[in-house]
Amino acid sequence: MENKDRVLLEVKNLVKHYPIKAGILQKTVGKVRSVDGVSFSIERGKTFGLVGESGCGKTTIGRTLIRLVEPTSGQAFLNGQDIFSLNKKDLKALRPKLQMIFQDPYSSLNPRMPVGEIIGEAVREHNLVDKDRLKDYILQIMEECGLRRYYIDRYPHEFSGGQRQRICIARALALRPELVIADEPVSALDVSIQAQVINLMKDLQTKNGLTYLFISHDLSVVEYLADTVGVMYLGSLVELATKEQIFSNPKHPYTRALLSAVPIPDPDKKMNRIILEGDIPSASNPPKGCKFHTRCPNCMDICKEKAPVWKDYGNGHYTACHLYSQE
Which of 14, 144, 178, 202 has its CA 20 to 30 A from that of 168? Predict the structure, then answer.
């Protein structure tokens, strides 16, 4: 599925559990399995789309990879360097190569700092540009991200949501990262503005050779931007394949259900909507066997007892489902 020499990020069996504490002594009485053994890799210059419903663990993966939260176990290699084993000094040196664009452009910007300071703060901290060139460098980054030069002295409250997200993108791009983790970067924006931001991200990727981990619940956006797609459910990957394989031949019942919910702009085309019954189980008490069996329209007896094996069903199309265990 991938050329090992071109892999920029490789995640192996990533686990992140949050303890549940109760009582006066705050004893641990359980754990929330936010991420439960996830593995994937991303090639240089490519986009890996991570999709799934809210609460499935997508954002936790992104926050864990940049060490905003520490993993319970697992490994993640950026250019062969284990991110999770780095001390504070080495992690700081790695930071410019690994940046994140957050979901909410309203809360991710310091309201007391002008745009120039927001974009230039990390550049100055990491000594990436000489002081006498810093302002010109910031203006260059702003222009690349579609921000006017005179915005440099303005504050976040003076901008629209789309402009604020451009500032967030400029802040990440200013460090010339190799990998950008984009966590639902357009979900808080109007639809008309979403297209502008997505096109900007695609243009910047082409121009700068960026690699994206694009986290989203919007499959139409992922179809436009991603090269490879991973589908998550309740902390685990259930399917992983190229974009073409996922959207033309989805194998897992959950992936099929997600795709059936995507609106089709053709009134003459019949939509076979797959309705999933019930609610998503709690991540603190996931079902035995396949985690999806409580909502799966194709559930079999084995699904209730045994977790399916992660398997390649041809050309790098991976899924974990008992429906294909006999193939």
Answer: 14
